Structure formats: structure tokens, C-alpha cells
């Protein structure tokens, strides 16, 4: 199980770094590159067995608040729009915000796993 957790966080470190790279040409790269680099750093720390609960908690709460803020008015409309366009370029602001919502939700879930592991270690 310990190896699974290690590889889980290695995978997410790489994915978050890729997400950061793909944000470079975003309209607001300084925000989103930073957000994904922070997630990659916490994932890399988890690979080493470090799970700082207070910073993780702050980032998780911030991700959830951001996801609620950017949540699309209709998920099914957004998914259908993405499937119809068949490309990942930003077409509308709503499309971009929907993607940001799901990126933040993924971060919150992955970092919650790290926080849970850290909490279990301490108790």
C-alpha cells in the first residue's frame, strides 16, 4: 500500500506540472501556473511522506471556494460544448472557468488524500 501511495503522488506531481505548463498561454498564467505548481509541490512532499496539515487545509479550502466560485451554470451544456468543438483551445470565458472549476476540484481531492494520510499518521 505504501508504494501505491508513493506512485499515486508521483503521478499527480507530474500531472500538476503538466497542468501548470499548459496554463502558460492562458489569459492569466501567473495565477494558474502558480496554483498548479503549489499542487505539484504538495504532491511531491507527499511522495517524501510529508503531509503538512495546516498548509494543506488552507489550500484545500481555497480550492473548494474557487471551484464553487467558477462552477459552471450547466455542467451538461459545458460537456456538450467541449465534445462538439473537439479541441481544447479556449473559445469562451465560461468554458475556461468550467475547466478551472474541475482543475480546482481535482486539486482539492488529491490534496485531501495527502491531508488524510497526514492526519492518520498523527493520530
Could you explain how this protein is built, in words?
The chain is mostly helical. It is 80% helix and 0% strand. It has five helices and no strands. The protein has helices spanning 2-22, 29-47, 53-70, 75-85, 93-122. The radius of gyration is 15 Å and the shape is elongated. It starts with a helix and ends with a helix.
Strand content: under 5%
Dominant shape: elongated
- What radius of gyration results from the CA coordinates? 15 Å
Helix amount, in percent? over 70%
- Write down the secondary-structure element order: HHHHH
Major sheet size, sense and barrel closure: none
Mean pLDDT: 88
Total domains: 1
DSSP strand tally: 0
Layout: helices, strands, pairs:
Blueprint: H1 2-22, H2 29-47, H3 53-70, H4 75-85, H5 93-122
Helix pairs in contact: 1-2, 2-5, 3-5
Tags for this entry?
123 residues; mainly alpha; 5 helices
Tell me briefly what this model is.
Helix content is 80%, strand content 0%.
